[in-house]
Design a protein that fits this description.
The chain is of the alpha/beta class and 220 residues long. The longest helix has 21 residues. Strand 6 and strand 7 form a beta hairpin. The protein is built from six helices and ten strands, in the order βαααββββββαβββαα.
């Protein structure tokens, strides 16, 4: 089991807080607008999708964290870290003998991540991510931005940093399925752990790198 952060929020904590805030605000509003029927309205209606998305995200982060717990104790793992000066956060950062892994958890039930390749012989080759047939460029760009933030925090270009989109409950094919797009790994949790542990070792002071990353990205 990897060494986990000693303090701060756990995986999915900030997403779960946002879900609960939105849920409670909706309940309070409905009860205020309908003093007599508020309870019935709440019982017969669901939270809007924009609210449920936060709960799905929290569960996804928790499930990825559970799988990352299978890493050996040569790794250090932190979850749900805030990017200073923004409203964004990084779901998971794992540091070990194979380098630094910046992981974004995505729970897209029954949707298939796919690599689309355009161009070729007479046009520049362009790779893109599709998820359930929809453009996933923003997901890839988000991970790349997180990787650059971590690179700045480490201030050492010799340390390999891998960006990862880790999809849960996706419609993966029976054979293959995982791929890399624009240097971002697109995988499922079990395969991610396998790659992290089997990747070639590098010269890395894990404890020192962990300290710099934990200081640069406070708990969300």
């Amino acid at each position: 089991m990897p060494i986990l952060e000693e303090s701060g929020s756990g995986a999915g904590a900030s997403a779960r807080r946002e879900y609960e805030r939105r849920r409670d605000a909706r309940e309070e509003r409905i009860r205020a607008e309908h003093p007599k029927l508020g309870g019935l309205i709440l019982a017969l209606s669901d939270d809007p999708q924009s609210t449920k998305a936060w709960e799905r995200g929290a569960v996804g982060e928790e499930l990825v964290a559970k799988r990352l717990a299978d890493l050996p104790d040569t790794f250090r793992v932190i979850h749900d870290r805030r990017i200073r000066g923004t409203k964004a956060n990084i779901d998971h950062i794992a540091i070990g003998p194979s380098g630094v892994w910046v992981i974004d958890a995505k729970r897209y039930k029954d949707k298939r991540p796919e690599l689309r390749i355009e161009g070729g012989l007479f046009r520049p080759r362009v790779e893109s991510l599709r998820v359930g047939g929809r453009d996933g460029t923003k997901l890839v760009d988000g991970v790349k931005s997180q990787v650059e933030r971590v690179r700045e925090a480490l201030a050492d270009d010799t340390i390999p940093i891998a960006g990862v989109l880790c999809f849960l409950e996706a419609d993966w094919p029976l054979l293959g399925g995982a791929f890399t797009v624009d240097e971002v790994h697109v995988v499922w949790p079990r395969l991610l752990v396998k790659r992290m542990t089997e990747a070639p070792g590098v010269a890395l002071d894990v404890r020192a790198a962990y300290g710099r990353v934990a200081e640069a990205f406070p708990a969300a």
